[in-house]
User: Fold this.
Amino acid sequence: MKKKSLAALIVVIALIGLLTFVVFNGLSIGIYNFRPLEGIQQGLDITGGVYTVYQAKDTGAEEYEQKMAGTLAVFRTRLDSKGFTEATITRQGNDKIRVEIPINNTSQMQDPNEISKYIGTPAKLQFKEPDGTVVMEGADIKAARAVIGQSGSPEVSFTLNDEGARKFGEATSRLVGQQISIVLDDVVISAPKVESVIAGGSGVITSTDFTNESANELAMQIESGALPLDLNEIEVRSMSATLGQDALQNSIFAGIIGMIVLFGFMIAFYRVPGIIACVTLTLYLDLVLLMLGSVPGVQLTLPGIAGIILGIGMAVDANVIIYERFREEAWAGKTLRVAQKAGFSKAYITILDSNITTLISAIVLALYGTGTIKSFAYTLMISILVSLFSALIVARSLMRWTINQNPKRIGFFVRKNKGGVIL
Amino acid sequence: MIVSKFKYTIWVTITVIVLGIVFALASGGLNIGIDFTGGSITTIEMGQQFDVKDVSNVLSDLGIQNAPIVKSGDNWTQAEIRVQVNQAEAEAQADMSSGILAGIQKTYPNAAIISQDKVGGVASSELVLDAFLAVLIACALMMVYIWIRFELYPGVGAIIALLHDVIVMTAVMAIFRVQINSSYIAACLTIVGYSINDTIVLYDRIRDNYKVMGLKKFTRREIANTSFRQTLGRTINTSLTTIIMVTFLYIFGVQSIKEFAFPLIIGLLSGTYSSMFIAVPISVFLQEKNIDQKGQKKKIKQKAVKATK
Assistant:
């Protein structure tokens, strides 16, 4: 049993060491490059950037849902056209849109105010001849909608006002067989071929690429030209990249110093179990970082970092509960093996109860919080789950194997009970 | 001890809260951030030492009044300009910051905006509502959980302890004039989630001791005291380790981290205190009043019934 335990102990600790190395250093085998830390998505407050929350003025508008979808699509197009492909656009509740735009040195626009102004103002929609001459503009279009054409595939049909009908009729009569491009904010969104003269003030755009969604989106964009919904800008926050990077560096530094002090404290106070706690804490940190890098939608923000650091404190908590119980049992005169078993099984319930209550509040936070608070809640949830695993499963086995090495050396595991158990 | 000394320990809480109210009244209310009031905070890095007067001159030239300017940053080279705006002014706000920057750059050519927060009135009132709702729902759910796992009265005690923590945190924010903003809300919610841990550990021990010691041999107070002593080492150690981590975060963190870490430290201290000196006594009082006395009355009644027979 002793040898088996020793082997298991060495293997597990070596694995944790290897994992730590891989997480912090990355690993490349052949063509595979595994860099977990780089997979972690950084939030705006770290990368620098701007986020804006818009609110629709009139939620009672006709076809509100469709207009909302159209607005989101217009935002996307506008941001992409300026190279902000990493920007995220999310709908918040019924009437709000949250736009997050990371800004870095290579961005076309640097001024956050300018960016939020740009995406929030009406777009410029134009129909252009192949040589670039503008045929007509968004104002000439009365309505556009996605329909299913005679061939059974989605198309976009549109109707024009009188002015538009005249201009379009004239242009299409000249350009049969050629393409008219539809340009939104200087980006070509569709370039249908003119198949016949369109003089009646209505026409159809067909494309083999159309799906129901993309046809609908295009119809929205054509019809709106401007944003389908009137929006108020209700919240803008921006942060420069240097400030975010400083914050990240400082927080990491604080985390490292805190961990060192914590390790010292645990070892001084709990001896061998303290060392085991340090090993499991390292594993905890590895796993949290791995999960942050791989769970989709989780961003690392400054409150998120605080969540991880708080999580370290909570992971220690589980260890402390276990070792205090273990010590009590040992002081009561039980052998180390029995004390270990009894300590864990009693601490188990306590740890589960206390972590579930925290998990409840983290879930509520994730549901009701927005932005950085949400990211904090996610990191807290990940922290709780990982800490449960590392304390209840890994620490338990490590303890058992260590005790098996020398079950008689009580002094390694618990201090002498000088004052007796205070009762 | 923890139960019978409640009439003394509660004074710690009362003192902090009264101090908070006095400070808040003395300085004209809480220092409430733009997250709640609406408005904007623009932080400008000057790139050198600067005179606040130069900045306020630029502001008054632009017709901006009542805009406090605070020096911040590692070397005090940053200016934080806080402007209260309402929805109608929000539009003009966008152009304002570039105007301010241009004005400042005349004196300090290296000046650059490093961060800007702008919150409209609508967003701010919703933030408050959401936060309030989140605390309420979290408390209700946790209470139900404790009710299921333990009993109703410990649940009530635990929730009162949580509210105690939030109130104490707010009072301390008032004493130190720390800004109440969304970081503070996040800190409160964190404490609501974390402080319950200590309480549960104590309750767990009490539940355990009901079996080990027995309610017939010992009173609820005696069992509570024993459990308190048994878990004291654990409670102090875990609070200490968490406080170590957060304190380093406070020492080394940038402003926005400090804003989060400070209320957390207060909340951690308050949470440890309240689980021992608020949650358990209240839970015991309620149990004594509603379970034990009723039980005794029942017994007395039964005896009386027997006697008449």
User: Anything to note?
Assistant: Chain A has two domains: 2-40+240-413, 49-239. The longest helix of chain A spans residues 372-405. Residues 173 and 197 of chain A are 5 Å apart (CA to CA). The longest strand of chain A covers residues 231-239.
